[in-house]
């Protein structure tokens, strides 16, 4: 199996856990990902074919990506960068699987062998889909989000669903198609595939299976997954084999009541100094202790009742919290619900507003707050309600039981062996 994944740390972490589970079940797994993420897979002895994306990732993670005002020149730069990313992924995957079954190219420390199936992250699936068609391989999409979730006002609307989600999918794919077009044209030329409308737009080839790695219990009623798409439950990140909790964190947790977690993952809801000050203000207003995860933006809160930490497995940390404040990325939201801990979602972009809306719609949280307009007063009010109203903890406990009965990684393996 060639497992192709790329994106933020939160995007990639579940695929580390999935790769570990597939290998433990006796499958031969090779990963294609960027230099930035390769060490995560190496820690678990999973071979990696490196996709040279360092320059493009640096550009994508530049601080100005979070500016609300988008000039035409900035949009053009982002478009070109996304097109470059698609081209690098296309070349790397095609080199890995070969043309007609023969492996070509030299991929990092990966074994020199052919592949039976390509497992594709949603960002890579449009490319892998056409490559698989041209090389005679199977291709299965492994999604933690769908394009339609990028337009939450349509896809999660209780008034428009299920038609809203279908419209959101169509609009999102149309907006993304220019990002894939040059790479898809190159793939068709390399493999001699006749140009077709689907291959031009970046749509996934018909008949290819797509497995969604989250619980269907969070989706709106009658949520219309496309034909061939199945929601199988989360696949969880794997802990680093040598990980141990920081002694400072262990001591802090033992020194008083369970704290509130604050963390915003790989995205930045604004100036780190301002956001750190907002968190400090909220902690004092509500009268709680807190654990703050520094994240990519480098949050740093100094207070007697606050501890700022680096990376820490959520499956270990979240059950020790009394409440969570996070960006509502699918993995973080899922980990919090698996732990049965209520949260205040503070989404910024991408699919985060979709999951935040679902948390409030299901009564798992009292409010979803915009990261761009976050104030200490409104976050304090929402957190106070979360902590004082037992209904949110009870609803999270109910969802936790549903999630605990699901095994997304086992479902992926079963699906692959059946087909």
UniProtKB/TrEMBL annotation:
Q: Which CDD domains match?
A: GT1_Gtf-like (cd03784)
The record's InterPro entries line, in alphabetical order, gives:
EryCIII-like_C, Glycosyltransferase_28, UDP_glucos_trans
Statement: the UniProt record of this protein carries the keyword Transferase: yes
Signal sequence bounds: none
Q: Which residues form the Erythromycin biosynthesis protein CIII-like C-terminal domain?
A: 304-399
Which keywords appear in this protein's UniProt record, sorted alphabetically? Answer: Transferase
| Protein's name according to its UniProt entry | Erythromycin biosynthesis protein CIII-like C-terminal domain-containing protein
């Amino acid at each position: 199996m060639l497992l192709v994944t790329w994106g933020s740390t939160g995007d990639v972490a579940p695929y580390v856990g999935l790769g570990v589970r597939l290998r433990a079940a006796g499958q031969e797994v090779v990963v294609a990902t960027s230099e930035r993420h390769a060490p995560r897979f190496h820690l678990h002895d999973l071979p990696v074919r490196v996709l040279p994306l360092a320059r493009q990732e640096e550009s994508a993670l530049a601080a100005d990506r979070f500016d609300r005002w988008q000039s035409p020149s900035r949009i053009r730069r982002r478009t070109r960068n996304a097109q470059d990313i698609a081209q690098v992924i296309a070349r790397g995957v095609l080199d890995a699987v070969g043309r007609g079954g023969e492996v070509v190219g030299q991929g990092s420390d990966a074994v020199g062998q052919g592949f039976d199936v390509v497992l594709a992250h949603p960002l890579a699936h449009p490319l892998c889909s056409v490559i698989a068609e041209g090389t005679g391989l199977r291709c299965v999409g492994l999604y933690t989000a769908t394009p339609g979730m990028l337009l939450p006002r349509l896809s999660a609307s209780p008034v428009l669903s299920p038609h809203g989600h279908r419209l959101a999918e169509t609009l999102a794919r149309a907006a993304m198609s220019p990002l894939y077009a040059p790479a898809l044209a190159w793939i068709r030329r390399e493999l001699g595939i006749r140009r077709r409308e689907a291959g031009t737009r970046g749509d996934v080839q018909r008949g290819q299976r797509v497995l969604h790695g989250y619980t269907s219990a969070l989706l709106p009623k009658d949520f219309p997954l496309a034909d061939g798409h199945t929601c199988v439950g989360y696949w969880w990140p794997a802990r680093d084999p040598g990980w141990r909790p920081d002694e400072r964190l262990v001591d802090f947790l033992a020194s008083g009541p369970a704290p509130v977690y604050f963390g915003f993952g790989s995205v930045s809801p604004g100036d780190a100094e301002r956001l750190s000050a907002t968190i400090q203000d909220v902690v004092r207003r509500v009268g709680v202790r807190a654990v703050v995860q520094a994240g990519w933006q480098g949050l740093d809160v100094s207070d007697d009742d606050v501890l700022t930490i680096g990376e820490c497995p959520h499956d270990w940390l979240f059950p020790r919290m009394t409440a969570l404040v996070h960006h509502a990325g699918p993995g973080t939201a899922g980990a919090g619900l698996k732990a049965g801990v209520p949260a205040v979602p503070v989404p910024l972009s991408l699919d985060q507003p979709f999951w935040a809306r679902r948390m409030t719609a299901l009564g798992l949280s009292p409010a979803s707050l915009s990261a761009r307009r976050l104030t200490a007063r409104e976050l304090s009010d929402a957190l106070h309600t979360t902590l004082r109203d037992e209904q949110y903890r009870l609803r999270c406990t109910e969802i936790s039981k549903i999630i605990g009965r699901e095994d997304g990684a086992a479902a992926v393996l079963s699906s692959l062996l059946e087909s």
